[in-house]
Amino acid sequence: MKSRLFAAATSITALVVLLFLAPFTAQAQDTTIKTKQQAELLIPRPALQPVKSLDPNAAETLDTLDTANPHIKILLLSDYSWKYYKDADYGKDIAEFNEYWNNDQPDPYHVPLDALQDEIALWIVDSLCGYRCPHQGEVYSKFGYRHGRRHQGVDLPLKTGTPVYAAFDGKVRMAKYFRGYGNLVVIRHENGLETFYGHLSKILVEVGDWINAGTMIGLGGSTGRSTGPHLHFETRYKGYAFDPQWLIDFSSGTLRHRLFVLKKKHFNADSKYVPEDEQVEIDILEGDTRDREEAAAKAEAERKALAAAQYHTIRSGDTLGAIAIRYGTSVNKLCNLNGISSRTLLQIGRKLRVK
Ligand SMILES: [Zn+2]
Fold first, then answer.
1. CA pair distance 301, 265, nearest whole angstrom
2. Following DSSP, what letter does each residue of 210-256 receive, concatenated?
3. Closest to 167 in 3D by CA, of 209, 124, 128
4. Nearest-angstrom CA–CA distance, 169 and 131
């Protein structure tokens, strides 16, 4: 037994030696090992290791640092940069993820519009929240009225099976088939925004998942009320939809704002996105019109007041108090109308405006 083991070990050693020598003694040893496969049968090789990415931009984490928030760490990366890392419990106590939360209604809020502020400043991305365009392409059907129905988002045509990405970090609130939306994913974000991804052919996330911007949440398709494969994408705040193009330029895939001021008027169906400089011009024009109207109204009021003005010529013995009583006004009003004080000496013959 021992000798057989010894013999086997010897022959394996011999093979190893032969393998090394093979290139040099190929002809002489030709009959011993003919193929690589034969050699592999005799000399086990270590299991294949997964090939590491050769992406030169892919930095590895070298170290982690704590921050004041126990759920946020700072990762130090091998390319001398750093980034924040949020753990699984981050966001658990953030009110946005606990209020009005359900898994089967597109609008769980039912908040009256009056309850919202006229202008809501929203940080769209910051050092803790990233962005990725859900699907880059031309907007085929815009936000607003369409065939008499309100279209709550934008339609982006795509091929069935195209990956659809989460626009921002957040938590999955809905992931199911829902009426006209077909397969629908709704993600709520930290700033209170919600994004909707409709007509998916496949949903790849589950309710309650915490996801980062750029996570593939599903594949594009044509489920639900849809005439062809496209992504129906919505942005909502407290249940109210606004034109996603205010935030995202879908044709270039870029985000328009880091900080976005959402205005209540954006919730109107006719409040389609207008390019920034155009909007600035509209605002200026509207402002000008308003200023002109206000100035005209003010001038008209002054003209009317002047037309209705009454004067009193001061005579000997007149006092402001007596004049005020006579014309049914007050000393204060008389002073304001004439730019005088109650102690101003009243000169006889001077005209005093009383109304
Ligand atoms: Zn649509």
1. 31
2. EE-TT-EEEE----SS-SSSEEEEEEEETTEEE-GGGTEETTTTEES
3. 124
4. 8
3 state DSSP class of 141? strand
d(CA 28, CA 30): 6
pLDDT digits (tens, 9 = 90+) for 147-159: 778 899 999 999 9
Convert the pLDDT of each residue in 343-353 to its tens digit.
888 888 888 88
Specify the CATH number for the domain of residue 331: 3.10.350.10
Q: Which domain holds residue 332?
A: 311-353
In a domain, 47, yes or no: no
From the CA of 154, how far away is ligand 1's center (Å)? 5
Residues 258, 349: one domain? no
Q: Where are the alpha helices (DSSP H) in the chain?
A: 2-25, 36-42, 276-307, 320-326, 331-338
From the CA of 161, how far away is ligand 1's center (Å)?
18
Q: What is the pTM of this model?
A: 0.64
Domain-located, residue 50: no
Q: For residue 56, is it within any domain?
A: no
Cα distance between residue 144 and residue 155, in whole Å: 12
Q: Is residue 84 part of a domain?
A: no
CA of 143 to the centre of ligand 1 (A): 8
| Cα-to-centroid distance, 98 and ligand 1 (Å) | 28
Do residues 45 and 19 make contact, with C-beta atoms less than 8 angstroms apart? no
How many structural domains does the chain have?
3
Do 127 and 20 share a structural domain? no
